[in-house]
Amino acid sequence: MAVTLVKERWQSRVGEVVLGATPAEGGTRSHTITVGGDGTLPFLHFEGAVANRPVVALEVNDVEPDWSPRLKEYYAGVINDPAAWAKKCVEEYGADLIYLKLTGANPEGANRTPAECAQTVKDVLAAVSVPLIVAGCEDAEKDNEVMAAVAEAAAGENLLIGLAEQENYKSITAAAMVHKHSVIARSPLDINICKQLNILINEMGLPLNKIVIDPMIGGLGFGLEYAYSIMERARLGSLVNDKMLAMPMICTPGYEANRAKEANAGIEDFPGWGDLHDRGTMWEALTATSLVQTGASILLMRNPEALKLVKQNIDELMVSNA
Amino acid sequence: MLIIGERINGMFTDIGEALKNKDPKPIQHWAVKQEEGGAHYLDVNSGPAIPKEERPEAYEWMVKVIQEVSNLPLCLDSTNYEAIEAGLKLLKRPGMINSVPAERPKIERVFPMAVQYNAALIGLTMDKVGIPLNAENRVAFAMELVAAADEFGLHMEDLYIDPLILPCNVAQDHAPEVLEAIRMVKTLANPAPKTVLGLSNVSQKAPDRHLINRTYMAMAMAAGLDAAIVDANDDDLVATAATAEILLNQSIYCDSYIKVFKSR
After folding, report:
1. A167, A181, B79, B256: least buried by Cβ within 10 Å?
2. How many domains are there within chain A?
3. What CATH class has B2-263?
């Protein structure tokens, strides 16, 4: 007997956000990337439009990060050169875009100046032609200075810059508005703060299609399901016309998955867990693919092997089931 | 909860005069003002100001001048279906038809028109004889309208059942029956039809109109009300609708939820 699929009729869709700008648009990117736009729950092609495929960024740091040796191996020889590192991510590993983290700005670390950080951004822009995501060092005060300098140095490039948070969103929003970038609005696994933050940013005058939601996540085994349900709620909200939740979402599986013990403990400590190399890769890949299933549009990853698996999974999910 | 602004109605003197004099200003003023107040739809009713034979032209004109200043969808309100159809043809966004009673000839005229113009449709739980007193008879009419939606291919979510509230100062016993009817209507089909009330009627000629309106609206929302034709510039009423939506967990809380409700 033929099965009739039950289809919801949604009133609205996720907003679209464009990343990057070509020379014609005032930037220097070879192409732009559009995310969001879906008119249904993720990958229900039979029910509504699955407008744009999720994209995957690889993370590049401006100083050598304190990652596990397993991850650093992939970037041997380029880990102290952000431009070369970015180039390798795009050309060799197939990253859709680059997530540049300016960890070196941290006053308790390398304490790089805003001008030095801006130069790093310029170097990476020169090395690769894909759109760029740039985030600071997570010291709010320093980030305000750094991101203002970065926004100005890369004016017109339509970077996706972060992070705007409830207690600290004005400076970065203003920088994005003046120099034509988009912002990442981060809320701490809290749908109510997420919505309010989008309103606050929008009230300053930044259009809704220049905001991307970072709902914050937990990695596999560490609260991933909690993030999953919050993201699902945001997606459902956007489909019933809650415009203040209808932005595409960006997630940090690279950071979260690699914090897990399961992604770091060797086989000698846990013989039953199997080989660390594959386990670490799978931990990040499964965190990322789960997020794609609940509506993530941009994934920030670290492991190029995991990235390959995730892109393959996205290819399969993008095949129409209509 | 959809707020359908009631103010563009020829029963109001300024709108009636505007219609007679073909003066777009009062109509455009109220279109903008109701949108600012929080209306999601604008009801458009010429009232008795225009002779029957001139109504199609009047609806065309109203739709045209409103769409010059507002992007809100319109709810075309008339018993003259030629007038409604004339307006439907000009809509930039899918609109709503207000209304059709549970009478077969009118059902046959209006349901296909709603489908043709991709419009939502308000169905009244009454027939030639009038408005029933109890919930059960209201629901019996609602069932006829639900069956008609099925028959003519109108999406169930595009059918808005209006169980017809009467003034509480003269017909107090209707108020609880209407609440019960709303609850029952929501069980008639899956997906359920929507529900709507011409809310201001509940407080006709009573001194505390605003209080009665917003109290009854909150009660009706708890019973399953999806839309109401109201005074969209009654700030307390709009805020009550926004708050009830939050407390019913129909939209996601944030500190600025009233603002979000008004501007969506």
Report:
1. A167
2. 1
3. alpha beta
Rounded Cα distance, A170 and A161, in Å:
13
Q: Does A7 reside within a domain? A: no
CB of A153 within 8 A of CB of A122? yes
Confidence of residue A23 (pLDDT cuts 50, 70, 90): very high
Ranges of each domain in chain B: 2-263
In this structure, is residue A187 part of a structural domain?
yes
A213 in reach of chain B (CB within 8 A): no
- Determine, yes or no, domain membership for A5: no
Give the position of tokens 């439907």.
B88
User: How do residues A71-117 score in pLDDT, each as one tens digit?
Assistant: 999 999 999 999 999 999 999 999 999 999 999 999 999 999 999 99
Which tokens is B146 given? Answer: 């639900």
CATH of the domain at A91: 3.20.20.20
From chain A, the residues in CB contact with B256 under 8 A are 196, 199
d(CA B56, CA B80): 8
What is the interface pTM, i.e. ipTM, of the complex? 0.85
Is A1 inside a domain boundary? no
In one-letter notation, the amino acid at residue B55 is R
Check CB contact under 8 Å for A199 and B157. no
Residue A235 touches chain B, beta carbons under 8 Å: no
Contact across the interface for A193 and B251, Cβ inside 8 Å? no
Task: Choose the mutation target among A7, A11, A187, A195 for the interface with B, i.e. most B CBs under 10 Å.
Answer: A195
